[in-house]
Amino acid sequence: MEKPCLIEDGVYRVQLILPESLERERRELELLLLKAQRRIVNFAELHGWKDLTRESFFDRAEIYGSKETFDRALAKIAGASEQIKFPKTYSAALENRVLMAVSPALYSENYSEGIEEDSYEKLLAHEIAHRLHIRILKGNEDAMGPVWFFEGFAIYAAGQFSQDKSPLESAEIQSIISASARTSYRRYGILFRYLTRKAPIEELIEHARKADFKLWLQEII
């Protein structure tokens, strides 16, 4: 396997594996992989975490033209049953230093709510952002906080849905932070951006790992 090749601080060219049906998009997809990394490097630099981006986050990328093939490959690399059914909207992952995603066309088809400017670049950046979050926590993945929080962090870091200025009513905020099941990523993004206006992101990350996180949130919101 080819080793990642450093292009600039925190940005690497990696081996890209594609099906024949996507070969004509190779150059565009290679550029999107670089742009996604730059997006996270820029975010990290803004918050004083640039040193955490100097080592590559993944060794290769695999992009699939079929959702079924993506699901099977993801299950295999994650050590799950190949019979597992991932949600239709589940379009990318970064597992065992492999960045995996469905094609841009499939992403738009399967997750219409996610369509916006640079949406595919942001999808890839979202997965890298999860790994940045873990590095901030010194490798402690269990300290990432509840689902809505670590997904909100990745959405915020990737710049997803940043133009959505929809308000969140108090009841909806309480519903999101109390829910155990996944809900709207768009609303996660709105909530996370709201919280960054109430406390520094570093403080949010530190409290998210604690048992009294929900109680602390009640004090700041």
What does this structure look like?
With 221 residues, this protein is α/β, with parallel strands linked by helices. The protein folds into 2 domains: 1-136, 3-Layer(aba) Sandwich (Collagenase (Catalytic Domain)), CATH 3.40.390; 146-221, no CATH class. Helices cover 48% and strands 11% of the residues. The protein contains 9 helices and 6 strands; from the N terminus they run βββαβαββααααααα. It has helices spanning 26-46, 67-78, 104-110, 119-136, 147-158, 170-178, 185-196, 201-208, 213-220; strands at 5-8, 11-13, 15-17, 60-64, 92-95, 98-102. Strands 3-4-6-5 form a 4-stranded mixed sheet, sandwiched between helices. A hairpin with a 2-residue loop joins β5 (92-95) and β6 (98-102). The relative contact order is 0.11. The model has no long low-confidence stretch (mean pLDDT 95).
Brief rundown of the structure:
With 221 residues, the chain is an alpha/beta fold. It has nine helices and six strands. A hairpin with a 2-residue loop joins β1 (5-8) and β2 (11-13).
Distance from first to last alpha carbon: 49 Å
CATH class of the largest domain: Alpha Beta
Order of neighbouring strands in the sheet with most strands:
3-4-6-5
Number of domains: 2
User: What is the approximate shape?
Assistant: globular
Helix run count: 9
Rg for CA atoms: 17 Å
The fold-level CATH name of the largest domain is Collagenase (Catalytic Domain)
Structural class by secondary-structure content? alpha/beta
Helix content: 40-55%
Please provide the ordered H/E string of secondary-structure elements: EEEHEHEEHHHHHHH
Main sheet properties: 4 strands, mixed
What's the β-strand tally? 6
The CATH architecture name of the largest domain reads 3-Layer(aba) Sandwich
Low-confidence stretches: none
Average of pLDDT: 95
β-sheet strand percentage: 5-15%
